[in-house]
């Protein structure tokens, strides 16, 4: 087994299988951590602090007809206090978490779902007679969900893999569960008993929520994100479900309105009947 250590491409240490050799007097303290561990793939070396130069080090290992090379970077770190070092954190090294397009899709789909929910409430309030306290309860729930979503977006928008951005994504995805009972209540205000279509739409939104939460769980621990498309797909399913629910509510409302008899058409026959009865009474009195 042969080992070669280089700095900036310049050889300074080698091992030919039997003997360690220092090729550069500037690294006279260089030695393998353990020759016995070479067979395990460990070819690390030790250097005195004074000889350890900041830069890129490369290690080439040759065994029989196999070769491998690894590059590591040596940095200076400043001690802030005992046991602590001023080193860059994984969040700082990660850079961008989501692509700008992915972030935009997540935000747009979230607000589309919210808009469709408010639109359903508006349609129901204008076309159906419902109990006032139910309307107020749903308005409060929609308002709270909207506020939480706005806070989540504010935290999520700043780029980078930070605790704030992760908390923002959590506030975007997790509270969308509120849409499921809200959808059930909205259908309950329109229908005497929920139809198969209503249950199917609620099931579709539930599937979207489960997908979005699964994507969030996969994204929150990875940078750069690898499963952002799962979060987007889940929110897209929820937005589509909310849109279809809005269409269904409008359809039910128009059907009920078409089948409801006009008030004038009902009142006129009643008035005619009253007139006939009065005429008969007057005729009898004259006779």
Automatic annotation (TrEMBL):
GO terms for cellular component: extracellular exosome; plasma membrane. InterPro entries: CD47, CD47-like_TM, CD47_Vset. Residues 106-251 form the CD47-like transmembrane domain. Residues 1-76 form the CD47 immunoglobulin-like domain. GO terms for biological process: positive regulation of cell-cell adhesion; positive regulation of inflammatory response; positive regulation of phagocytosis. The chain crosses the membrane at residues 97-124, 136-157, 169-191, 198-218, 230-254. Coiled coil: none annotated. GO terms for molecular function: thrombospondin receptor activity. Keywords: Glycoprotein, Membrane, Transmembrane, Transmembrane helix. This is CD47 molecule.
């Amino acid at each position: 087994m042969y080992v070669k250590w280089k700095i900036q491409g310049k050889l300074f240490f080698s091992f030919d299988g039997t003997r360690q050799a220092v090729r550069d007097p500037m690294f006279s303290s260089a030695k393998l951590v353990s020759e016995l561990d070479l067979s395990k793939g460990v070819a690390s070396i030790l250097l005195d602090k004074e000889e350890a130069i900041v830069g890129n080090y490369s290690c080439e290992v040759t065994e029989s007809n196999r070769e491998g090379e690894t590059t590591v970077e040596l940095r200076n770190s400043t001690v802030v206090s005992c046991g602590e070092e001023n080193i860059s954190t994984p969040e700082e090294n990660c850079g961008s978490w989501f692509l700008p397009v992915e972030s935009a899709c997540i935000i747009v789909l979230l607000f589309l779902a919210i808009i469709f929910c408010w639109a359903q409430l508006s349609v129901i309030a204008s076309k159906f007679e419902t109990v006032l306290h139910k309307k107020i309860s749903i308005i409060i729930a929609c308002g709270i969900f909207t506020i939480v979503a706005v806070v989540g977006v504010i935290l999520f928008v700043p780029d980078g893999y930070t605790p704030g951005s992760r908390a923002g994504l959590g506030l975007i995805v997790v509270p969308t569960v509120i849409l499921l009972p809200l959808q059930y209540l909205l259908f309950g205000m329109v229908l005497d008993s929920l139809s198969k279509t209503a249950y199917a739409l609620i099931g579709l939104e539930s599937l979207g929520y489960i997908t979005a939460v699964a994507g969030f769980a996969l994204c929150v621990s990875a940078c750069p994100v690898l499963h952002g498309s799962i979060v987007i797909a889940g929110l897209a399913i929820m937005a589509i479900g909310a849109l279809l629910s809005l269409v269904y509510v409008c359809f039910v409302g128009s059907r009920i309105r078409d089948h409801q008899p006009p008030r004038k058409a009902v009142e006129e026959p009643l008035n005619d009947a009253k007139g006939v009865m009065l005429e008969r009474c007057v005729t009898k009195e004259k006779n």
